[in-house]
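Table S2 (continued). Query chain:
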Amino acid sequence: MNIRDVTRYKTLVFDCDGVILNSNQVKTDAFYNAALPYGEVLAEQLVDYHVNHGGISRYTKLEYFLKNIVPKDILAKESFESQLKALLTTYAQLVHQGLLECEVASGLEELRKLTPNTKWLIVSGGDQAELNEIFLKRKLSYLFDGGIYGSPDTKDEILSREIKNGNITLPALFLGDSKYDYEAASKANLDFIFLSGWSEVADWKEWCMNNHILQLLNLAELI
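Corresponding output:
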């Protein structure tokens, strides 16, 4: 079985950041700057957590930051809810412009023409409403006839739901750039290809080799 032959799949599932958009650094910078009022050291710790947990939503990461990284005496100065809301608002503002300006993966049009009868979906850790707005403004929405999905639902929840309702039909292939993408794809019985070109996974070569994962630089290599 050649999983690189995308024409054999009934469904293609794409992560967004690091796969469709070169936006991983945009989000890393946004986490750092949103947390900067708590100090550089804590902001760096949030960035480390973010990079090591690629593909997980901002809600989970910022909640973790407040519960596990910010010292209790600092956290106690304001309500947890107000601090989380402020972080989410700042993060969203910082990310929005970056997503409108960052590079789009080459070869999307050609890949879509190569798979005319294949359903395409986005399954991302990014905010779902934000993703739909960005893809509409960047004139990418039409490519994804199966829908554009994101947080607050997790990738596991989205994949399970869309398989149950028949929107994802097997055989299906997940194209991602994080370890969580691989874990979610495996749980849902989807094939998986790791795209390394824009990934923030530091040990991806060893990880892909140990797990026998096909690795490509980018989507253009599928054409």
